[in-house]
Amino acid sequence: MVPIIVSSVLALAICLERAWALRTSRVAPPELLPEVWNWIRSKQLNAERLRELKAGSPLGEILAAGLLNSRHGREIMKESIEESASVVIHHMERYLSLLGTLAMISPLLGLLGTVLGIIEAFMAVTGGGMADPSLLANGISKALVTTAGGIFVAIPAMIMHRYFVRHITSVAVDMEQQAIKLVDIVHGDREVDFQEINP
Fold first, then answer.
1. DSSP count for the chain of H helices, then E strands
2. Shortest CA distance to 184 belongs to which of 197, 173, 174, 199?
3. Which pTM does this prediction carry?
4. What is residue 171's DSSP assignment?
5. Mutual orientation of helices 32-41 and 58-68 as an angle, nearest 10°?
6. What string of DSSP letters covers 91-143?
7. What is the rounded CA–CA span in Å between residue 4 and residue 113?
8. What pLDDT score does 185 carry?
9. Quick one: pLDDT at residue 129?
10. Per-domain residue ranges for the chain?
11. What pLDDT does 191 receive?
């Protein structure tokens, strides 16, 4: 049970940390692009603002990468945005592989505990004779507790792993749309609905 308890504590810690770190208001603030557009329109976009933008949020980091390379043309700007986005998404997925691993190994740890417990119960019965069959039943029931514990840890861990993967995908799509709007704003190759981004 000790490895299962450790797995449950780790899984809970990862879920709480990722839930806090992946808040939409922190990752992709909805007011960020309109604010950047106002900086561009009023010619207030400078190195200090870019540093603030980059440090403020993952979306800000992507937009800052694009703005830093905007003078080199539309394609270079898009490439720099894509490169920055891949790094940002990689950071957003931190600890998720560990959470998925914990969800997979917890039932196996429980099964291992059950097998070892049953072996121990049979050895006890073999050593002491079959005078008391309840001894075997008691040993098996105790052994099955580890399987139940492993499944109890695995189910919520798997649910949260799937949720975080889906959430990251959804946020990544939103950030991609915001970045495309920024490219359109800066280069003006296509019309942008400024009502959407102007607060």
1. 9, 0
2. 197
3. 0.79
4. H
5. 30
6. HHTTTHHHHHHHHHHHHHHHHHHHHHHHHHHHHHHHHH-SS-HHHHHHHHHHH
7. 10
8. 79
9. 57
10. 2-94+162-189
11. 46
CA dist 143 and 131 (Å) reads 21
With a CB cutoff of 8 Å and minimum separation 6, the contacts of 161 are 96, 99, 100, 103
Express the helix, strand and coil content of the chain in percent, nearest 5 each.
Answer: 85, 0, 15
- Which pLDDT does position 153 carry in this prediction? 93
The Cα 141–Cα 155 span in angstroms is 21
The reported pLDDT for the residue numbered 199 is: 38
For the chain, which ranges sit under pLDDT 50?
Answer: 190-199
Task: Give dist(CA 54, CA 33) in Å, integer.
Answer: 13
> How high is the pLDDT of residue 189?
54
Burial class of residue 58 (count of CB atoms within 10 Å of its CB; 0-12, 13-18, 19+) = buried
Whether the Cβ atoms of residue 27 and residue 59 lie closer than 8 Å to each other: yes
Q: How far apart are CA 70 and CA 64, in angstroms?
A: 10
CA 155 to chain centre: 17
Q: For the beta carbon of residue 77, count every other beta carbon within 10 angstroms.
A: 22
The Cα–Cα gap between 158 and 163 comes to 9
Helical packing angle, 47-56 and 32-41, nearest 10°: 170
If you ran DSSP here, which 8-state letter would residue 28 be given? S
